[in-house]
Amino acid sequence: MPHIFTSLRHATEKLLEAEYFLCRSMEADGIYFQYELNAFLSASRNVTFIMQSSMSRVAGFGDWYAEKQAIMRNDPAMRFFLELRNVSQKQGPVSYVSGAIIGGGYTYRFVEDRTKLPRDVIGKDIRVACAEHLVKLGSLLSDFYTDMPFDACPWRAFSEAGMKALHFEWSDVEVAVGYPSGWANVDIPAEEKFKHLRRDIEPLNVSAIERIASNNITGEKGPIDFSNVIGTGLIDRFADNMSRNGLSLNPRAAFLRAVIDRVKDIDGK
Questions:
Q1: For residue 17, which phi and psi values (nearest 5 degrees)?
Q2: Rg, the chain, Cα only
Q3: pLDDT of 193
Q4: What are the backbone angles phi and psi of residue 100, rounded to the nearest 5°?
């Protein structure tokens, strides 16, 4: 049976898709923000789904991923985002509140409803929390590329080092690129053969993975600045009232209480 070459390409595409919707959410408001958030949650959840599917035949991947899963399960914020996708896809809209920012735009906060809010999410704009989650997913892909580069990228596997690590034959390479049997039986150095063969293989977009893993979230206009979506303490009090003070079904009362408490804070200073 021919060797099956594997790639992180599709998982990386989902990572970039999630980044795309996150960047779009920076310009969205109203129901359009909800659309972008739902799309982000779906794409980001699929990063790990596709990674597991595409690497299921890789020797050692099961143990490698089990260790990563344990880390993700012990990360309340990551577990929260994984659960949110199920909420948005199967139960209805994700609960959140929004408030206007002085100078324009809106800031958003998650509200505890079907899913308990982890400490790392409370008091943060939703886009900031999403960006932090995206960075963790980028780091997951980056770690796999570092640990198993030849399984992550066929372009890199097409080398003498890759052949030695994956134990494939020239016939496997011919099948993978669709060349006739015996095409590689030419009297030239192996690395020269691979150089020609790599022309038919698309390299993994490692730079995009590493960029996101290093917390450089970038849209069509360049790097995203999240500092202008922080908002004030009013939106945090509003979200807290909706989550913890029994006012989830009465947004007006939750908001009025937040205003009163905010005024008290200001008077106290």
A1: -65, -45
A2: 24
A3: 86
A4: -70, 150
CA 89 to CA 36: how far, in whole Å?
13
Under the banding of pLDDT at 50, 70 and 90, the label for residue 179 is confident
The letter for the amino acid at 23 is C
In this structure, the chain runs to a length of 269
CA distance 112 to 95: 7
Confidence band, pLDDT 50/70/90 cuts, at residue 68: very high
Site of tokens 């994984």: 82
| pLDDT given for residue 110 in this prediction | 86
| Cα(46)–Cα(84) distance, integer angstroms | 13
Higher pLDDT, 28 or 234: 28
pLDDT mean across residues, the chain: 85
- One-letter amino acid of 178: G
Q: Report the alpha-carbon distance of residue 187 to residue 114 in Å, rounded.
A: 65
- Quote the pLDDT of residue 142: 98
Q: Are 220 and 23 within 8 A, CB to CB?
A: yes
How far is it between the farthest Cα atoms of the chain? Answer: 85
